[in-house]
Amino acid sequence: PIPLSDLFNRERYDIDHIIPQSRYFDDSFTNKVICEKAVNKEKSNRTAMEYFETGSSIPSVFSKEDFIDHINKRFEGQKRKNLLATKVPNDPVVRQIKETQ
After folding, report:
1. In Å, how far from its chain's centre is CA 96?
2. CA 11 to chain CA centroid, nearest Å
3. What does the pLDDT profile of the chain (101 residues) look like in tens digits?
4. Predicted TM-score (pTM) of this structure
5. CB neighbour burial string for 7-38, b if at least 16 within 10 angstroms, e if fewer
6. 98: alpha, beta or left, given left = phi > 0 and alpha = psi -120 to 50?
7. Other beta carbons less than 10 A from residue 60's beta carbon
8. Other CB atoms within 10 Å distance of the CB of residue 1
9. I need a labelling partner for 51 at 20 to 30 A (CA). Which of 21, 37, 68, 92 fits?
């Protein structure tokens, strides 16, 4: 849990695109989470599952199995799908928007 007093501390936390915007043009709430700045930096241009496939050098980050269990218990709908996506969705409309930016 993130203490409310730290939630808006830009030195510690970032808004992360679950599926990177550079790979999939989705700036909606269902494609965003709040995470520690160090985790967001380490995740870089990968999806959440790509990040968990390779593991993390940050000791407090869940294992892949714990992450999947946590997501299935706490999220639903499109956000859950985004968090568990093993590849970038192939949506032709979204792809065309991204290609014409």
Report:
1. 22
2. 18
3. 888 989 889 999 999 999 998 888 888 999 999 999 999 999 999 999 999 988 889 998 999 999 999 999 999 999 999 999 988 877 656 556 655 66
4. 0.81
5. eeeeeebbebbbbbeeebbbeeebbbbebbeb
6. alpha
7. 8
8. 3
9. 92
